[in-house]
Design a protein that fits this description.
The chain is of the alpha/beta class. It is globular. The chain contains 15 helices and 14 strands. Bound molecules: 4'-deoxy-4'-aminopyridoxal-5'-phosphate (PMP). The site of 4'-deoxy-4'-aminopyridoxal-5'-phosphate (PMP) has 17 residues, from α4. InterPro entries: 4pyrrol_synth_GluAld_NH2Trfase, Aminotrans_3, Aminotrans_3_PPA_site, PyrdxlP-dep_Trfase, PyrdxlP-dep_Trfase_major, PyrdxlP-dep_Trfase_small.
């Protein structure tokens, strides 16, 4: 497998890219900044594999950072796109395809009765907090450290994912005005939440949270935290915004809210909802969504929103997840990976632990379980970088940061999971 570490064409492409785009990339995590070394340029993807420009094949544990739950180039999605593309690529007018995707979202996600389609997860969360403020007439938004909700100014405070990885959780360019109305607390801290509501309850428009956090690695919420989120927001007239951009359609057909019994007022979606094309969505009760223009007064719009290619890929993906649910298979595959990684940690004596829920999993290089941003910060990120390159050079494509989740897709097989465990054991033994 030594050829996998040999990537001259990727190196050439990266040299050129750096002259063309900041850091050579269009989204910072892709630059591999946290793990050192150069990013790998991809030529093609099929099933559970990525193929780079040098012809190396990698077993993919990112799935485009979440969307590719059915695997890459899933034939029914490709067929739906081919059928759609022949009829034009954008009309800027309503289409039956938008009804179809909206119907599927409303059918699958328990708390959504009406939905608005946008073009990314960031647009979904940005619009959701505007809606929360518009609907309540209040200004403050409460979020949690290490949770990432896209690059919305007011939410780019103590942000997880690439913001945490690249040490800019609070970005230059975000005005103090944009962030003064953002309250930040530790994830899983029900007491701090109660204290914040005791102090600011009447000013809080909404609480936005990841129902399972994927953006500081996988962090699972406690029942106490989830209960406090719902009861305190209800008691104080604030809206609960469940950011299911990552967990939606991944942890169950109805997302984390269905799996964990959460009843949010507003849900944000992205990633899987577009089947690999740029789609986001936000939704809630008909009453709350009635505040959005042209029914209500809260402005939100988009030239390419509800794009026919995007709705074709999204609807085909959601229909497949509904009619042939892969969730039992994903659970079994990822449990197999979890058990194998735990066994490899034990046998090599490396200080690490594994967090998993459904097909989201993270190997944390820490001696303690990760429950919030303070504990996430205890991870040995140098060790992570060594582990990452050890796995990459063996043909396993992992997220390039300790603070991201790995995703298993329905295209993975038990044999491939076994091969991953064998490689992980080898790499851990070298650390
Ligand atoms: N919310 C969450 C929970 C996310 O994980 C992400 C992206 N990883 C976003 C919002 C932003 O989505 P996008 O990158 O599509 O703007």
């Amino acid at each position: 497998m030594s050829s996998v570490a040999d990537r001259p064409l990727s190196s050439q492409a990266f040299e050129r890219a750096k002259q063309l785009m900041p850091g050579g990339v269009n989204s910072p995590a892709r630059a591999f900044g946290a793990v050192g070394g150069e990013p790998i340029f991809i030529e093609q993807a099929e099933g559970a594999y990525l193929i780079d420009v040098d012809g190396n094949r990698y077993l993919d544990y990112i799935g485009s950072w979440g969307p590719m739950i059915l695997g890459h180039a899933y034939p029914p999605v490709i067929e739906a796109l081919q059928h759609s593309i022949a009829r034009g690529t954008s009309y800027g007018a309503p289409t039956p395809g938008e009804n179809e995707l909206a119907e599927l979202i409303i059918e699958l996600v328990p708390s959504v009765d009406k939905v608005r389609l946008v073009n990314s997860g960031t647009e979904a969360t940005m619009s959701a907090i505007r809606l929360a403020r518009g609907a309540t007439g209040r200004d403050k938004i409460l979020k949690f450290a290490g949770n990432y909700h896209g690059h919305v100014d007011s939410l780019l405070v103590a942000a997880g994912s690439a913001a945490a990885t690249l040490a800019v959780p609070n970005s230059p360019g975000v005005t103090s005005g944009a962030s003064t109305d953002t309250i930040v607390l530790e994830y899983n801290d029900a007491e701090a939440l109660a204290a914040a509501f005791a102090q600011h309850g009447s000013e809080i428009a909404g609480v936005i949270f990841e129902p399972v956090c994927g953006n500081m690695g996988v962090v699972i919420p406690t029942t106490e935290f989830l209960t406090a989120l719902r009861s305190l927001t209800r008691e104080h007239g604030a809206l609960l915004i469940c950011d299911e951009v990552m967990t939606g359609f991944r942890l169950s057909p109805g997302g984390a809210q269905q799996l964990l019994g959460i009843e949010p007022d507003i849900t944000t979606l992205g990633k899987i909802v577009g089947g690999g094309l740029p789609v986001g969505a936000y939704g809630g009760s008909a009453e709350i969504m009635g505040h959005i223009l042209p029914e209500g007064k809260v402005f939100q719009a988009g030239t390419l929103s509800g794009n026919p290619l995007a709705t074709a890929a999204g609807s085909t993906t959601l229909r497949t997840l509904r009619d042939n649910p892969p969730y039992e298979r994903l659970e079994a595959l990822t449990a197999q990976l979890e058990a194998g990684l735990n066994e490899a940690i034990q046998s090599t004596g490396v200080t690490a632990n594994v967090a998993r829920i459904g097909s989201m999993i993270t190997l944390f290089f820490s001696e303690q379980p990760i429950t919030d941003w303070s504990t996430a910060a205890t991870c040995d990120i140098k060790r992570f970088a060594q582990y990452f390159w050890g796995m990459m050079d063996r043909g396993f494509y992992l997220p390039c940061s300790q603070y991201e989740a790995m995703f298993v897709s329905a295209a993975h097989t038990p044999e491939e999971i076994d091969a991953t465990i064998t490689a992980a054991r080898e790499v851990l033994a070298t650390l």
